[in-house]
Amino acid sequence: MVTENLKKFNTPVFPFTAIVGQEEMKLALQLNVIDPKIGGVMIMGDRGTGKSTTIRAIADLLPEIEVVKDDPFNSHKSDLELMGNEVKMAVQNNKTLETELIKIPMVDLPLGATEDRVCGTIDIEKALTEGIKAFEPGLLAKANRGILYVDEVNLLDDHLVDILLDSAASGWNTVEREGISIRHPARFVLVGSGNPEEGELRPQLLDRFGMHAEIRTVKDPILRVKVVEERTSFDQTPQLWIENYESQQQALRDQIVAAQKLLPSVEIDYDLRVKISEVCSQLDVDGLRGDIVTNRAAKAHAAYNGRDKVTLQDIEKIITLCLRHRLRKDPLESIDSGDKVGKVFREIFEIEE
């Protein structure tokens, strides 16, 4: 009864399956949910193109997760990589843990956030007087096993972006204060969005995002009218809308869960791996992050489509998303970086245009 009342008071979220267009962004988000190790998504696009709406919608779509009750890190009851120290100790001492189901955490990072608010802080007074490590968890702790969303990531302080990307890559957050050190799990899907007119992200930070989706404003007048009508209709009767799309939402939810289970058994042929690296090499991509992410994303795409073997079509669908932001910027280059990736991909994989 209490949960039913809570549902009534929750702000209704626009259904993910009702979002018109923006296929590239939707695909990138779904693949990151299937395999968070892809490393997050950077979504760059015009104002008012539904970036925030889509990100909130994917969080609402995802199935509930089982967490240890009253644990600040949303700890997993058996996976050591996803549990805080207290839960780990309890597991080692064979204590029974109470668990509960919660919606996947969706944490918004405000632009004005301080480092202490993001990472968490240690209560020095308590540590000195009572002799215990008193940790006040931050946003990274809240986001463990969920989604961390940074709007206008290109306006966020560089050192904060660095902290976020480090945690997203390693899955752990370490807080060092006054000679006390605390480490906790922080495995989340990092989603950043921004408007290119407000400035670019530094290349070394941009490279750390697994995928980069670009969004354009819809030009087709009929499609624009459809978007406006659907949004207006949703605002007037949100509950009815949510009910109408429930079967589609559930079907997509099941597809994502099935893909997560299938992912460990997905394989990619050696020849395809060599060709992916050839594309990266010819595009002069620095480092090996591009190769790794493209392989992971291709496997996630195959799993999403219910296959245990990666095909050429899987790679074609994701390679631009994974590589377009890793190319060196050439001011004299007339071709768009996404088109350049596509062109080199077709040459190496010998696909007719």
From TrEMBL:
Residues 37-219 form the AAA+ ATPase domain. Pathway: Porphyrin-containing compound metabolism; chlorophyll biosynthesis. This is Mg-protoporphyrin IX chelatase. It catalyses: protoporphyrin IX + Mg(2+) + ATP + H2O = Mg-protoporphyrin IX + ADP + phosphate + 3 H(+). Belongs to the Mg-chelatase subunits D/I family. Its main location: plastid. Signal peptide: none annotated.
